[in-house]
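Module 6 notes. Inverse folding takes a fixed backbone as the condition and produces residue identities as the prediction. Think of it as a translation problem where the source language is geometry and the target language is the twenty amino acids. Below is one complete input and output pair. Work through it position by position during the lab.
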């Protein structure tokens, strides 16, 4: 009888395992497999497929010229099939966080063997991290055995926008310790078009970057605030009363127009942060940076608030300099720039990839700054308008802030 029950139990476990496998999407392959030589092998079980391809930044992009703009376009490679398993091995990859998807007979498909993924605007991709040595990019973007800060989703009132809105806030390790009365500097980090308050924590690995840099003594412990940059929405899709709408590059498209913009309403964010957290104030303790649209918001917010931010970072920023032909507009802009630089910010940091479609706009800003003797620090990298660059820029900017 005892043997009978053991057999039944074993059968039940087998059925349970099969059921769980079915629920998880059926049979899977070992994918991605990070090989000892630094290459990565991708596999997909698809015996009925006629063609399987791989696309993502695990493959070198294709450089394309569009007028005066040189851009990088995603490349695609074919997988090779054997016994129903499709396979491809990359060249040696440098330490980094990578994203990819499969295309099965032309249909974009996530890797069923890889549970790690993120959403960029309305598109999901699988991710993997390649790391070789302590302190390299892959290691910096990983969760390591270091003290961890807390990441919270909090709500603040914005009278300027007429909305109750959500922020993502990182507080450094030990912030909530019972006897800790320390006040901290604040780093405001803004996302790009189509993003929201989840973009920097997820795609940007912002918490992991700060955890690791603070633990290494390379960044002063600080509070990091990541707002939602779409002024006519309250939060990420599915996280507020508008429900599970599909987001787009326009962010809040389809909703009533905003009462004003993020730069004009930024004081509401700062008011909430300074009244709810132990914050050091003043320009020496206040930094703002952002990518693309968020870089443009950082640009405009700093112009509207001369002397408020001691550290300003523009990552692939959507910036513009008014034409001198429009005298009134140009004169107003020049007055704002003079007021901001007369306040002597400690750092005005501009960073962009050489194939970024906003390269010429940033070149125009640098030309204006040079002509007027306004000091800035410039960082140019390979690649285009991509998260790989923005994670690197945040890493560098954070190490320069609050010095």
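Target side of the pair, the amino acids:
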């Amino acid at each position: 009888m005892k043997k009978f029950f053991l057999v039944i139990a074993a059968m039940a476990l087998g059925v349970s395992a099969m059921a769980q496998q079915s629920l998880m999407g059926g049979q899977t392959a070992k994918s991605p497999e990070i090989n000892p030589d630094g290459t990565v092998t991708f596999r997909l079980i698809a015996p009925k497929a006629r063609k399987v391809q791989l696309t993502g930044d695990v493959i070198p992009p294709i450089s394309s010229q569009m007028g005066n703009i040189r851009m990088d376009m995603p490349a695609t490679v074919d997988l090779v099939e054997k016994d129903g398993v499709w396979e491809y091995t990359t060249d040696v990859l440098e330490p980094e966080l990578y994203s990819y998807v499969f295309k099965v007979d032309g249909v974009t498909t996530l890797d069923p063997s890889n549970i790690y993924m993120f959403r960029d605007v309305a598109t999901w991709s699988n991710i993997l991290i390649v790391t070789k040595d302590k302190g390299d990019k892959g290691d910096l973007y990983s969760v390591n055995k270091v003290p961890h800060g807390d990441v919270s989703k909090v709500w603040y009132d914005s009278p300027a926008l007429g909305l109750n809105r959500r922020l993502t806030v990182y507080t450094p390790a030990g912030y909530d310790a019972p006897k800790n009365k320390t006040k901290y500097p604040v780093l405001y980090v803004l996302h790009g078009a189509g993003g929201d308050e989840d973009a920097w924590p997820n795609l940007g690995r912002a918490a992991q970057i700060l955890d690791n840099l603070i633990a290494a003594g390379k960044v002063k412990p600080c509070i990091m605030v990541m707002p939602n940059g779409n002024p006519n929405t309250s939060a990420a899709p599915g996280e507020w009363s508008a429900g599970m709408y599909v987001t787009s590059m326009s962010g809040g498209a389809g909703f009533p127009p905003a009462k004003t913009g993020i730069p004009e309403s930024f004081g509401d964010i700062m008011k909430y942060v300074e009244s709810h957290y132990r914050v050091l104030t003043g320009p020496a303790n206040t930094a703002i940076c952002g990518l693309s649209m968020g870089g443009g918001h950082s640009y405009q917010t700093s112009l509207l608030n001369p002397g408020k931010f001691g550290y300003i970072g523009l990552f692939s920023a959507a910036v513009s300099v008014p034409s001198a032909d429009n005298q009134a507009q140009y004169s107003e802009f020049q007055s704002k720039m003079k007021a901001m630089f007369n306040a002597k910010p400690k750092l005005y940091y501009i960073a962009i990839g050489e194939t970024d479609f906003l390269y010429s706009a940033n070149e125009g800003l640098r030309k204006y700054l040079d002509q007027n003797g306004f000091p800035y620090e410039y960082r140019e990298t390979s690649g285009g308008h991509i998260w790989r660059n923005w994670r690197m820029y945040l890493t560098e900017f954070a190490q320069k802030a609050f010095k």
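Reference fact for the lab report: Residues 144-400 form a domain with the Rossmann fold fold (CATH 3.40.50.1820).
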